[in-house]
C-alpha cells in the first residue's frame, strides 16, 4: 500500500522532470553535466546492495543470525557509498552553476534525484536501527517481518533508481 | 516394518509446508539479469555518443527505456515477491500506484509536446 503511494509520488516527479528537462535557461545542460562512469558506479553500489538485502532475508529464513547481520551491514555500507557518490556529484554540479533555483531543469532534477537520495538516507537509518534492535532482541516473530519489510522498501528504492539512471542520466547523456 | 513408515512420514511432512522459501538461486539469477540489463543500457548509450557512430537517437532511447521496464519487472517479480501466492492486495496497490504514475507521465508529455 505504502509502496503503491510511493509509485504515484515518484511518477509525478518523473513526469515533471520529463516535461522540464530541456529548460536549462542557458546554464549547463544534462549533456554538459552528467558523467556516465560515476553513474555506473552509483548504480552498481545500489544494485549489489539490493542483492545483499535479499541475502540477509535468506540468512534470516535459515536462522543464521550472524550472517543476516553481516549482510544487513553490507547493505547499509553500500547505501552509504551510493549516497557519498551522489553528494559528491551534487557538489560538483553546484560548482558548475547547476542549482535548484538555476533553471526548471535544475529544480526538477534535484526534486526527483534528491527525493530518491532522501529515500536512500531514510533506508540507511531504518536498516541501521533494525540491526541494533536485532542485536538486542534476536530474530523473533516481531523482528522478522521488520527485516522483510525493510528489504522490500530497499528493493523499491532500487527499482526507482533503474528509472532514474535510464530517464535522467542515460537519456540526458544521449541528449 | 517400522523403518519403512518413518521415512515416508518424514517425506509427507516436507510436502505439507505451504509457504516455501526459495533458495538463493532465483535471487542470484535476478541479480545477474539486472546487471546484464544495466550494463547493456550503459553500453548502448556509451556507443551511441561515441565518435563516428551514426545511430538513430530514438532507437537507443527506445532500447534503454525497454531495458528499464524489463529490469523493473524482473526485480518486482523475483525480489519483491509479486509472483508469490496470496499477494493479491499488494499486487493491486502497486498496480494502482503504477497506473496513476503512468497517467501523470502521459499527461505531462501530452501537455508539453502536443
Structure notes:
The complex is a heterodimer of chains A (175) and B (114). Chain A is mainly alpha-helical. Helices cover 83% and strands 0% of the residues of chain A. Chain A has 6 helices and no strands. The radius of gyration of chain A is 18 Å and the shape is elongated. Chain B is mostly helical and 114 residues long. Chain B has 2 domains: 24-80; 85-114. Chain B is 78% helix and 0% strand. Chain B contains 4 helices and no strands. Chain A binds chain B through residues 1, 3-8, 10-12, 14-16, 18-19, 36, 39-40, 43-44, 47, 50-51, 54-55, 58, 61, 152, 155-156, 158-159, 162-163, 165-167, 170-171, 173-175, and chain B through 21, 23-24, 27-28, 31, 34-35, 38, 41-42, 45-46, 48-49, 57, 60-61, 64-65, 67-68, 71-72, 75-76, 79-81, 89-90, 93-98, 100-105, 107-109, 111-112.
Key phrases:
heterodimer; A: Four Helix Bundle (Hemerythrin (Met), subunit A); 6 helices; B: 114 residues; mainly alpha; 4 helices
- The total tally of domains of chain A equals 1
Query: Which architecture name of chain A does CATH use?
Result: Up-down Bundle
Mean pLDDT of chain A: 85
Order of helices and strands of chain A: HHHHHH
> Which value, in Å, is the CA radius of gyration of chain A?
18 Å
Number of strands of chain B: 0
- Mean pLDDT over the residues of chain B: 69
CATH class of chain A, please? Mainly Alpha
Sheet bearing the most strands of chain A, described? none
Specify the helix fraction band of chain A.
over 70%
By oligomeric state, this entry counts as: heterodimer
Per the principal axes of the C-alpha atoms, what is the gross shape of chain A? elongated
Residues in β-strands, percent of chain A: under 5%
Q: How many whole angstroms does the radius of gyration of chain B measure?
A: 23 Å
- Which topology of chain A does CATH recognise? Four Helix Bundle (Hemerythrin (Met), subunit A)
Classification by helices and strands of chain B:
mainly alpha
Q: Note the gap between the termini of chain A.
A: 36 Å
| Corresponding CATH superfamily of chain A | Cytochrome c oxidase, subunit III, four-helix bundle
